[in-house]
Amino acid sequence: MNIAEKKRAKFERKTEKYEVKVHPQSSRLYHIEISKEAIAAFLETVSKDNQSVQHLEYTPYARLIIASYLLDQVGEDFGELLRNIVHDRESGGFTLGLEGVTENTDEYVIFATAISYLLGTPNHDSMSGKYYARFSVQDTDSSDSYLRQAYRLFTLHTDGTFVDEPTDWLLMMKMIEQNARGGESRLLHLDDWKELDMYVNHPLSSHKFTYKAPKSKNVDQEIERLTFFNHNNKPGVCFIDQFVYPESIEQAKYLRDLSNSLESDESVLELELPVGDLVVVNNIFWLHGRAAFEKDPNLNRELLRQRGRFNQ
Ligand SMILES: [Fe+2]
Predict the structure, then answer these.
(1) Which residues, 6 or more positions from 293, have their beta carbon under 8 angstroms from its beta carbon?
(2) Can you tell me the distance from the alpha carbon of 258 to that of 253, in angstroms, rounded to the nearest whole number?
(3) Cα 157 to ligand 1 centre (Å)
(4) What EC designation does it have (predicted)?
(5) Ligand 1: distance of its center to the CA of 160 in Å?
(6) Which candidate, 112, 149, 202, 296, has a CA 20 to 30 Å from the CA of 16?
(7) Could you tell me the sign of the dihedral formed by the alpha carbons of 31, 151, 288, 80, in that order?
(8) Which residues have a beta carbon within 5 Å of ligand 1, which is an ion?
């Protein structure tokens, strides 16, 4: 194990209730396994308390109450552990799942809510009008962005580019997957990108680009964003090719070349995420996207997403 890998293994641990390991696909990520008994006990408490997805949607404090039910099972330190991993520049991400204890998608939403409220506070998702969104990718699609277009690569980007609020982290959970080949989440840690320095040191890296959302996002706002900015003395990134509006050919070429450079980087990870598992990444120094699916008329995949901030 070299020094970089040792640094990345610093959150590895095993308790009676859970185990934290370096992710089998990437030494940048951790994989956390909560014991089946703890998950079952958590779901039982939730159900005894008559908590439902609708109740969580309507009553914000209930989301923190169910987060406390998870802590009751796995220990008070668990929330701090998750936050420390997502803050940690060497890593910044983890995967975690329900270990097959349930296949009920309402329970998936409840579990994902407990995790997101241990991380901080999810932002309002304008697309769904809730604190989370579920969206499916199928054979046909009539939307106005690449989010639901199955057979195209969804290029690497960060979330929250066109909203005026911090988006510190992103959670994606696999809810349903049928007849899906391909479509993996693609992830790139900013510090693994070979040409990072070249784009950070380019004069246009400190240009404020205008971002506008397409209609389906229900965000009627324009916002100016730096592509690279200082984040704890290291670069942070804000970029999505679909919603940025350059004003010159030179700017357009900078954005195109940046996107191409990200896409072709050898460190891009194609994450295998089973149904019932979720991935959380720091949205300041991880980029995410999606591989194309193979054509299938019965393709059906649904993800849940939450984006949010750390509490101060
Ligand atoms: Fe995204």
Answers:
(1) 137, 150, 151, 180, 181, 182, 183, 299, 301
(2) 8
(3) 6
(4) 1.14.11.64
(5) 8
(6) 112
(7) negative
(8) 159
pLDDT of residue 141: 76
pLDDT in tens, 112-125: 999 999 999 999 99
Between 36-50, 147-161, 208-222, 279-293, the lowest mean confidence (pLDDT) is in 208-222
Specify the 3-state DSSP secondary structure of 23: strand
Ligand 1 center from residue 122 Cα (angstroms)? 15
Determine the length of the chain: 312
Ligand 1 centroid–CA 202 distance in Å is 25
The alpha carbon of 24 and the centre of ligand 1 are apart by a number of angstroms equal to 23
Alpha-carbon span 2 to 275, nearest angstrom: 33
236: tokens are 């942070």
Inter-axis angle of helices 77-87 and 105-119, to 10 degrees? 70
Q: What is the mean pLDDT of residues 288-303?
A: 94
